Structure formats: C-alpha cells, structure tokens
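Researcher: Good morning. I'm working through a list of sequences from a screen, and I'd like to move beyond sequence-only analysis. For each chain I'm collecting a predicted structure so we can compare shapes side by side. This is the next one on the list. No need for commentary yet; just the structure.
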Amino acid sequence: MLQIASAPPSVYLVDDDQALRTALKFSLELEGFDVRTYETGEDLLKAHLPHRGGCLVLDQNLPGLSGLEALSVLRSRAVKLPALLITSHLAAALRDTARNAKATVVEKPLLGDVLVGCIWRALDEARAS
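Model: Good morning. Structure tokens for this chain:
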C-alpha cells in the first residue's frame, strides 16, 4: 500500500532578535515543523501566506509594525492562521486586544518545549473549529 507522508505543519516566526529567531527556528525544526522566519512585521506581510494550515508566532515588540498590528493586517486579509503573540511585557489590555484578534499571548522568556506545546494547542484548536 502506498503511504503518502503529510507535510509538516508550517510555523511563520517573526522576531527582530536574530539570535532568538535562529534558536527558535532550530528548536522548532527539531520538533518537525517547517519554519519560515521574518525579521519584521512588514517582512511577514510581504510573504505569501496561506489562509489556513500553519501557525503564526509573532513578537509583540518589533521595529515598525508591532506583532499585533501585523496580525491585524493579516486578519483584514482573511488570513485565519492561529497566532501566538510573544512578549516580555504582558499587560491586561494587550491580552484583551490579542484575544479579540484571536491570538494567544505567551510570555518571554520562552523555553522551546513551552512554545512547541502552545503551537500544537493552537493548531489543534484551529482544526477543531
């Protein structure tokens, strides 16, 4: 019987910190994700993104557009990918605004396994809805 391998889930990672971006990419690839990285929200917005079938991971504090602002633009383009917003400065207002954009806020510092768990939960919830 012919077995067709499914493509690994895609993660679209946006962080202006090159060292963190590289470390997270490596960690996520070890877990089997297909990771595409971007330095800014503007870089992400230039990319061809599917409307479904992956997960966005955006740093909130980016130069230019913030992670939430970039996500807002993507939502206006009908991109329905689940999203994780990572930040080291969590405020209630940010959590509420992120929730309205259908994003989950994850606090830094990040451990690879915590992020992996959050991504899998977001992908599972997106499949179920």
